[in-house]
Structure formats: structure tokens, C-alpha cells
């Protein structure tokens, strides 16, 4: 389950970066999802789970 959450977080960050750098409008929801994705990634790094 943890690997799935990590994968989703990474995909969300990539989608956000593409939409941000490409100038596409994705709405406010992508920023909320990005914050959640960053939290998941940070928790995984802090816990040291590989």
C-alpha cells in the first residue's frame, strides 16, 4: 500500500510540473493534490522506508 501511495505522489508531482511549466490550466485541485503528494513523499523519506 505504501508503494502505491508513493507512486501516486510521484505521478501527481510530475503532472503538476508538466501543467505548470507548459502553461496549462488545471484548476485549484491540482495544487491541493500536490500538497498531499509532497507530504506523502516527505513522510516516506523521514521514515526511511525504501
From TrEMBL:
Identification of the protein by name: Lmo0937 family membrane protein
Keywords recorded for this protein, A-Z: Membrane, Transmembrane, Transmembrane helix
Superkingdom of source: Bacteria
Keyword Membrane attached: yes
Organism of this sequence: Rhinopithecimicrobium faecis
Bilayer-spanning residue ranges: 5-22, 28-46
Amino acid at each position: 500500500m505504501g508503494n502505491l501511495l508513493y507512486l501516486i505522489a510521484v505521478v501527481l508531482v510530475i503532472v503538476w510540473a508538466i501543467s505548470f511549466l507548459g502553461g496549462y490550466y488545471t484548476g485549484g485541485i491540482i495544487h491541493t493534490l500536490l500538497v498531499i503528494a509532497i507530504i506523502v513523499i516527505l513522510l516516506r523519506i523521514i521514515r526511511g522506508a525504501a
